[in-house]
C-alpha cells in the first residue's frame, strides 16, 4: 500500500465565515491530517456542512460531519451529525484519514493503527465529497456510482430526508460530552414498528411505544415491511408503520436535525441559520420519567415541567455515582431472607415498571405481602386497585427498576426493608436534568408562509417553561394508557364497543330531533340522547363550524386518545356537511355548578374534597402527562361533571378551540380571551403569555367556591367591577377572613355542616389561595397541587 500524502487536488475555497482554505473533496491517494484539522476540512458546496477531525476531548479527535461553525464560535458538539469513530477517538498527533488507491477509506490513529474503515474497494478514480444535505459520499468520478455514504451509517442523528431503514439505527451518545454509544436505541423492530429501547449494562427494555400497548393500540401498522422513515425538510416525519408527526414549526424553512439524545428522548432541533441557537421543535417523550433506566436501578424519578426531572434513591438506598445517575442506587443494608426481619414501607403513587416476579389478579394485602416474604428475591410489591373489576391486584418485584412518582398512578408500592432501621427518609440527593430543561421554542408561522400553517398560529412563545397553549399539540399519536390503571382498562372496553363515527340521522333519532337540551355554552348546545346501543349520551352540537372536515377529524382523533378516569369519555362524533357533533358519556349527577347551587345538599365535605383532588389529577394529566399537552382554559363548575359516585369528570376541553380557530388565524397567539368571567387568570386581562398556570388559577377559584359555596361571579356583582379587580372579590374576602381566628367557620359553606376534617380543610384553603396568586410563577403546578392534597390522605 502506498500512502501518497499529497494535496495536489486541493481546491481552495474562500468562505464567508471561515477565512481558512478548505477542500471540496478528497481524491484517491490523498489524506486529511489531524494536525491541520482547522484547514483539512471537506466542505459542502454551499458551506452548510463540514467533514473532518472534530476535537471531542483533550488531545482526542473523531472524524465527523458537522454543521459548519463560524470561525469565532466556540465549537458546539450539538452541531455534530455523524461520526466515524465514536467509540475510539484518535490521537491529536499523526492521525490521518486516507482515501487509499484501492478505494478504501481508512482512519489511522497516531500513525500506528487503523480504527475505522469504509471497507470499500475500487480501481476506478474516486472522490470523497460532502453533499449539501450533509451526506458524505464516496463515488466514482465517472458514472457516479456510489460506493459508500455516511447516510447509510447514522450515529445518533438523522438529517432531513435521510432515511431510517431496516439496516440502520440511531444510538444515543453516552452523555452530552461523551460521544461513545450510550444506552438508547431507535430502530425498526422485527414487527416493522419503530421503537425505542433502553439497552443498559444489566437490563434492556422497550419504553416507546408504551410496551403494554399492542402495536395497533399505539396507532401503528405492522404489516408494511418496507421499514422506512424520514423527516422531511419542512418538519414532517413519516414512517412506514404509519407513525407520523409534525414539528411545532412545521413548514418553515429551517436547518433541522433529529437526534436520539443521551437521555433517551428523540428530539427534533431547528434553527434559522448558523448564527442562531438550536431549539427543540419536537420531542417524542414528554414525561422523561417514562424513559427506562433514566435514574438507574433502585431509584425514583419525578418530573416537574418547570424544574425538569429529578432522580432520588429509594429509602434505604444510596446513590452509586453522583455524577452519573444511570448507575442507580445500592442498598444501605444487607438483604435477609428471614421473614420476621422484614418490614414494608408504603410509597403512595409510586410505580415500578417491569420485573414482576409474580402476579395475583385478585389479591388481599396479606396474600400479597406473604407472597413477597416467601420469595427471598422479592424486593417489594405493587398493590393496585382495579376499579372496573372491583379487585386488588398484586405484583411482586425482584428488581426495583424504572420507578417513578406520577400524579395519575393510583396504586401503592411497598418496599421491603429490614426491621429496626430508620430508612424512612429518602436520601435527599437528587439531580436536575439539564437536557429536559431545554425549553420548547414555539414560533409563529409567518402569515405569508401558507394557510397550511394556521395550525400553528396559536403557538405562543412561552417565556418560562414547557407549557403549551390551549392547543392539542400533535406530538405523538399514542394512546396514553397505563398498565395498571383502571381508567385504561375501561378505555379498552370502549375501544371494543367502538369509538365511532355516527351519521347525522342516527344522532337525530338518538336525540329525538335534538329536543332534550341539557346544556348550552359558547361552543354549542348539549342534548341528552340514547344511542342505538341503548347507552345514554350527551350529544354536543357545535355551532356553525367553518372548520374543514380533515382538521376536525384530526382533532377528534387526538381527543379520543386522551384517557383519564377524571376526564369525560368521548364515544364518537359526526361530521356531515356543516354538522360537527361530539358524542360523550352522559353524567347522571350533572355538573358541579348544579350540585353547588342545589337545595338538597348533595355535596358533603368528603365529596367536595374528592372532587378537588380528582380535578387536580386530571389537570396534572392534561398539563404534564399525556402526550399532547393541553390547557383547558375554561375551568369552572359548569365544566366539572359528576358521575354516579360523585367523582369529577372534566368536560368541554378543546371545544372552545374547535369553535374559535377561524377567529384566531389573523393574530399571533390568542386574539380572543378565553374562559369565563370570574374564573379567569389575570394573564388574560393583562395580555401576558398564557401558560398552564391559567388553569391553576381557575382551579383555585373553583376550589374556593366549593369551600365557601359562594360564586365568584355573584361576588362580583355586589362589589367592585372594573377589569383590573376582575375576580378578586371572592379571593380577597377569603384572604381577609383567614386573618381572623376561627376563620374556617366563617368562610365555610353552611351546606357542609360540621362534619369536616379541619386539617384537610386548612390545606385545601391554603392550596386554593396559592393557586390564585396574581403572579403566575408563585402558583404551584397541578402535580404539586395533587401532591399537597394527597399528602394529608
Ligand atoms: C485538558 O486540557 C486542559 C488544558 O488544555 C487542562 O487544563 C485539563 O486539565 C486537561 N484535562 C485532562 C482531564 O487532562
Ligand atoms: C465514555 O463512555 C464510554 C462508555 O461508557 C466509556 O468507556 C469511556 O471511558 C467514556 N469516556 C470518557 C472520556 O469519559
Ligand atoms: C396507514 O395510513 C394510510 C394512509 O394514511 C391509511 O390509508 C391506512 O389505512 C393506515 N393503516 C392503518 C392500519 O392504520
Ligand atoms: C409502506 O410504506 C411505504 C413507505 O411509507 C409506502 O410507500 C407504501 O405505500 C406502504 N405500503 C403499504 C402496503 O401500505
Ligand atoms: C441569520 O438570520 C438572521 C435573521 O433571520 C439574519 O439577520 C442574519 O444575517 C442571518 N445570518 C446569516 C449568517 O445568514
Ligand atoms: C462516575 O461517573 C463519571 C462519569 O461517567 C466517571 O467519570 C467516574 O469514573 C464515575 N465514578 C465512579 C466512582 O464510578
Ligand atoms: C439495587 O438493589 C438491589 C437490592 O434491592 C441490589 O441487589 C442491586 O444490586 C441494586 N442495583 C444496583 C444497580 O446497584
Ligand atoms: C429470624 O429472625 C428472628 C428474629 O430476629 C430469629 O429469632 C430467628 O431465629 C431467625 N430465623 C432464622 C431462620 O434465622
Ligand atoms: C376475589 O376474591 C374474593 C375472596 O377470595 C372473592 O369473594 C371475590 O368474588 C373475588 N372476586 C373476583 C372478581 O374474582
From TrEMBL:
Annotated ranges, domain EGF-like: 285-323
SMART domains xref list: B_lectin, S_TKc
Positions of the Apple domain: 337-428
Gene Ontology molecular function terms on file: ATP binding; protein kinase activity; protein serine/threonine kinase activity
Domain called Protein kinase: residue spans: 512-793
Cellular component, GO annotation: membrane
Catalytic activity: L-threonyl-[protein] + ATP = O-phospho-L-threonyl-[protein] + ADP + H(+); L-seryl-[protein] + ATP = O-phospho-L-seryl-[protein] + ADP + H(+)
Compartments reported by the entry: Membrane
Membrane topology per record: Single-pass type I membrane protein
Domain of life of the native organism: Eukaryota
Top-tier EC class: transferase
Bulb-type lectin domain residues: 17-151
Binding site for ATP: 540
Transmembrane segments: 455-479
Gene3D superfamilies from the UniProt entry: Bulb-type lectin domain (2.90.10.10), Phosphorylase Kinase, domain 1 (3.30.200.20), Transferase(Phosphotransferase) domain 1 (1.10.510.10)
InterPro entries to which the protein is assigned, alphabetical: Bulb-type_lectin_dom, Bulb-type_lectin_dom_sf, EGF, Kinase-like_dom_sf, Pan_app, Prot_kinase_dom, Protein_kinase_ATP_BS, S_locus_glycoprot_dom
Residues making up the signal peptide according to the UniProt record: 1-21
The keyword Transferase appears for this protein: yes
SUPFAM superfamilies the UniProt entry points to: alpha-D-mannose-specific plant lectins (SSF51110), Protein kinase-like (PK-like) (SSF56112)
UniProtKB keywords: ATP-binding, Disulfide bond, EGF-like domain, Glycoprotein, Kinase, Membrane, Nucleotide-binding, Receptor, Serine/threonine-protein kinase, Signal, Transferase, Transmembrane, Transmembrane helix
Family stated for the protein in its record: Belongs to the protein kinase superfamily. Ser/Thr protein kinase family.
Name of protein: Receptor-like serine/threonine-protein kinase
Annotated organism of origin: Medicago truncatula (Barrel medic)
Amino acid at each position: 500500500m502506498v500512502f501518497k500524502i499529497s494535496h495536489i487536488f486541493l481546491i481552495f475555497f474562500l468562505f464567508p465565515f471561515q477565512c481558512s482554505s478548505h477542500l471540496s473533496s478528497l481524491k484517491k491517494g490523498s489524506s486529511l491530517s489531524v494536525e491541520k484539522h482547522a484547514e483539512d476540512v471537506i466542505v459542502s458546496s454551499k458551506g452548510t456542512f463540514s467533514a473532518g477531525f472534530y476535537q471531542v476531548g483533550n488531545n482526542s479527535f473523531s472524524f465527523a460531519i458537522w454543521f459548519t461553525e463560524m470561525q469565532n464560535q466556540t465549537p458546539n458538539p450539538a452541531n455534530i451529525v455523524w461520526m466515524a469513530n465514536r467509540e475510539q477517538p484518535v490521537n491529536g498527533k499523526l492521525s490521518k484519514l486516507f482515501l487509499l488507491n484501492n478505494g478504501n477509506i481508512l482512519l489511522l490513529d497516531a500513525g500506528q493503527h487503523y480504527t475505522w474503515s469504509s471497507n470499500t474497494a475500487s480501481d476506478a478514480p474516486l472522490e470523497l465529497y460532502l453533499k449539501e444535505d450533509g451526506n458524505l459520499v464516496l463515488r466514482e468520478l465517472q458514472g457516479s456510482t456510489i460506493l459508500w455514504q455516511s447516510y447509510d451509517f447514522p450515529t445518533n442523528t438523522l438529517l432531513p430526508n435521510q432515511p431510517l431503514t431496516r439496516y440502520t439505527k440511531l444510538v444515543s451518545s453516552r452523555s452530552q460530552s461523551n460521544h461513545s454509544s450510550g444506552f438508547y436505541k431507535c430502530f425498526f423492530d422485527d414487527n416493522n414498528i419503530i421503537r425505542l429501547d433502553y439497552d443498559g449494562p444489566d437490563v434492556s427494555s422497550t419504553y416507546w411505544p408504551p410496551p403494554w400497548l399492542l402495536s395497533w393500540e399505539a396507532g401503528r401498522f405492522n404489516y408494511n415491511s418496507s421499514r422506512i422513515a424520514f423527516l422531511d425538510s419542512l418538519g414532517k416525519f413519516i414512517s412506514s408503520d404509519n407513525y407520523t408527526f409534525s414539528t411545532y414549526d412545521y413548514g418553515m424553512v429551517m436547518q433541522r436535525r433529529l437526534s436520539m439524545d443521551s437521555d433517551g428522548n428523540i428530539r427534533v432541533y431547528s434553527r434559522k441559520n448558523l448564527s442562531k441557537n438550536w431549539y427543540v421543535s419536537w420531542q417524542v417523550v414528554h414525561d422523561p420519567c417514562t424513559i427506562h433506566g433514566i435514574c438507574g436501578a433502585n431509584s425514583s424519578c419525578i418530573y416537574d415541567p418547570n424544574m425538569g426531572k429529578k432522580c432520588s434513591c429509594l429509602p434505604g438506598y444510596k446513590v452509586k455515582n453522583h455524577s452519573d445517575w444511570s448507575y442507580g442506587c445500592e442498598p444501605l443494608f444487607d438483604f435477609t431472607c428471614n421473614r420476621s426481619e422484614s418490614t414494608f414501607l408504603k410509597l403512595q403513587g409510586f410505580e415500578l415498571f417491569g420485573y414482576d416476579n409474580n402476579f395475583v389478579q385478585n389479591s388481599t394485602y396479606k396474600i400479597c405481602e406473604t407472597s413477597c416474604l416467601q420469595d427471598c428475591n422479592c424486593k417489594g410489591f405493587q398493590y393496585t386497585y382495579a376499579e372496573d373489576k372491583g379487585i386488588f391486584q398484586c405484583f411482586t418485584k425482584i428488581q426495583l427498576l424504572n420507578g417513578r412518582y406520577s400524579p395519575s398512578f393510583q396504586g401503592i408500592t411497598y418496599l421491603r426493608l429490614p426491621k429496626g432501621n430508620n430508612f424512612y427518609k429518602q436520601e435527599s440527593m437528587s439531580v436536575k436534568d439539564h437536557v429536559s430543561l431545554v425549553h420548547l421554542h414555539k414560533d409563529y408561522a409567518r402569515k405569508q408562509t401558507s394557510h397550511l400553517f394556521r395550525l400553528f398560529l396559536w403557538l405562543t412563545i412561552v417565556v418560562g417553561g414547557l407549557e403549551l397553549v390551549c392547543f392539542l399539540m400533535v406530538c405523538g399519536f399514542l394512546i396514553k394508557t397505563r398498565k395498571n390503571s383502571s381508567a385504561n382498562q375501561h378505555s379498552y372496553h370502549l375501544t371494543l364497543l367502538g369509538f365511532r363515527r355516527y351519521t347525522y340521522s342516527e344522532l337525530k333519532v338518538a336525540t329525538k330531533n335534538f329536543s332534550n337540551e341539557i346544556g348550552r355554552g359558547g361552543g354549542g348546545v348539549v342534548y341528552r340522547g340514547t344511542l342505538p346501543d341503548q347507552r345514554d349520551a350527551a350529544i354536543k352540537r357545535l355551532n356553525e363550524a367553518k372548520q374543514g372536515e380533515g382538521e376536525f377529524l384530526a382533532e377528534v382523533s387526538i381527543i379520543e386518545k386522551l384517557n383519564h378516569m377524571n376526564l369525560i369519555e368521548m364515544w364518537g362524533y359526526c361530521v356531515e356537511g356543516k354538522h360537527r357533533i361530539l358524542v360523550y358519556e352522559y353524567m347522571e349527577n350533572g355538573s358541579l355548578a348544579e350540585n353547588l347551587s342545589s337545595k338538597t345538599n348533595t355535596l358533603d365535605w368528603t365529596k367536595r374534597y374528592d372532587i378537588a383532588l380528582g380535578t387536580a389529577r386530571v389537570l396534572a394529566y392534561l398539563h404534564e402527562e399525556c402526550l399532547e399537552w393541553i390547557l383547558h382554559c375554561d375551568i369552572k363548575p359548569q365544566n366539572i361533571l359528576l358521575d354516579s359516585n360523585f367523582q369529577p369528570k372534566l368536560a368541554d376541553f378543546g371545544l372552545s378551540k374547535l369553535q374559535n380557530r377561524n377567529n384566531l388565524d389573523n393574530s399571533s397567539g390568542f386574539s380572543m380571551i378565553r374562559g369565563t368571567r370570574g374564573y379567569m387568570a389575570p394573564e388574560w386581562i393583562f395580555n401576558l403569555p398564557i401558560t398552564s398556570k391559567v388553569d391553576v388559577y381557575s382551579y383555585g377559584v373553583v376550589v374556593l367556591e366549593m369551600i365557601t359555596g359562594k360564586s365568584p361571579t355573584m361576588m362580583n356583582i355586589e362589589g367592585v367591577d372594573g377589569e383590573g379587580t376582575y375576580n378578586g372579590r371572592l379571593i380577597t374576602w377569603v384572604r381577609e377572613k383567614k386573618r381572623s381566628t376561627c376563620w374556617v367557620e366563617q368562610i365555610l359553606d353552611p351546606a357542609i355542616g360540621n362534619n369536616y376534617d379541619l386539617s384537610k380543610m386548612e390545606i385545601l384553603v391554603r392550596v386554593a389561595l396559592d393557586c390564585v396568586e396574581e403572579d403566575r410563577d408563585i402558583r404551584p403546578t397541578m402535580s404539586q397541587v395533587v401532591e399537597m392534597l394527597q399528602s394529608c390522605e
